[in-house]
Amino acid sequence: MLTLNAANLQSVLEELHAQFKGNSTGKVATYIPELGKADPNGFGIAAVTSTGQVIEVGDARKSFTGQSTAKPFLYALALETRGREYVLERVGVEPTGDAFNHIKLDEDSHRSYNPMVNAGAIAMASFVEGKNPTERLNRMLDYFGGLMGHKVSVDIAVFMSERTTGHRNRAMAHLLKNFGMIEGDIDEALDLYFQECSILVNAVDLATMAACLALQGMNPVTRERAIAAHVTRDVVNVMFTCGMYDYSGEWAYRVGMPAKSGVGGGVLAVVPGHLGIAVYSPLLDARGNSVRGIQVCEELSRRFGLHIFDAPAHRTAEKAHEPDVARQREHQA
Predict the structure, then answer these.
(1) Residue 1 counted as domain residue
(2) Domain contains 243
(3) Whole-prediction pTM value?
(4) Is there a domain that residue 113 lies in?
(5) List 57, 62, 71, 236, catalytic entry
(6) Whose CA is closest to 180, among 220, 231, 127, 139?
(7) Does residue 313 register a pLDDT over 60?
(8) Is 113 part of the annotated catalytic residue set?
């Protein structure tokens, strides 16, 4: 089993990129027309360490829309601003075993099952605070900017494509509104949800966002707090049980890292205390997960022993020689 350090990571990422780039299994998402224009050969891998070092291979700087990879962070924003109990009354934390766009609520509570599926994320969008749609959008974009370490924007073409074709999501929103699980105007909540899905990212951005979760909310690149420390445990926990759609159980069994995928081809994974990992490859399996993304993460978990239940002793070499940004910042605070 390899020691988790930058040199080993660079070598392994290069090897895995070469190993899997010829795999053309899967299909680009087409149910959102703009996503169907993605290059099926696009493939990038990135990792961001606890000290802010960025390791990247292939198309790690290629822009795409984050889609559902944004959901953990919209959940974090809701937890920060509305509080745990308020959110939990309206959105559950249970795996569904169903597809991410399944129109189904908990029969007893009428909540969406979790914030990692569409229904839950639509509710989260309605919780974003602001006096008007522009203020709520800017609040969300500023929050995501802190996670990535730079200003962020929405791909307008993808947003309009989602808005025009998102009839299932509209049905979910009306069902949620019927039971009082979303706030305010339905169309405004849906627009913000579609805009959240259409935020432009790349693999380095996703790895940085994952690293923020790995370091209890500290951004290791900017060395600034991006997420309130007290909400990161809840976010990572729900990612572990619900983040990979109806593949979440097998992912937890085989890979064992809290993670989130999106139909734009992104996958981000969290190694608590150590680093964030991200893969971009838009060829998806039947569940909507990146085929190469799963392969890369499974191999990284196996080679470095990154499963959350693996003994972490072999990971200490990097910690012994490199300062922990999160600990430094907390001490200074």
Answers:
(1) no
(2) yes
(3) 0.91
(4) yes
(5) 71
(6) 127
(7) no
(8) no
Asked whether residue 329 carries a pLDDT value surpassing 80, the answer given is no
Q: Is 233 part of a structural domain of the chain?
A: yes
The catalytic position among 12, 50, 68, 93 is 68
* 263 noted as active-site residue: yes
Concerning whether 290 is annotated as a catalytic residue, the answer is: no
> Annotated catalytic, 245?
yes
Catalytic member of 48, 93, 221, 263? 263
Q: What are phi and psi of 49, to 5 degrees?
A: -85, 175
Residue 78 has pLDDT above 90, yes or no: yes
Indicate which CATH number applies to the domain containing 210: 3.40.710.10
Q: Three-state SS for 275? A: strand
The pLDDT tens digits of the residues spanning 186-240 come to 999 999 999 999 999 999 999 999 999 999 999 999 999 999 999 999 999 999 9
DSSP designation for 187: H
207 and 58 fall within a common domain: yes
In the chain the first and final C-alpha atoms are separated, in Å, by 36
Q: Which residue has the higher pLDDT, 180 or 17?
A: 17
Q: CA–CA separation, 17 vs 252, rounded Å?
A: 23
Catalytic residue among 193, 236, 248, 261: 193
- Look up the domain containing 295 and give its range: 6-67+201-332
225-243 burial, b at 16+ Cβ within 10 Å, e below that, comes to bbbeeebbebbbebbbbbb
Q: Is 109 a catalytic residue?
A: no
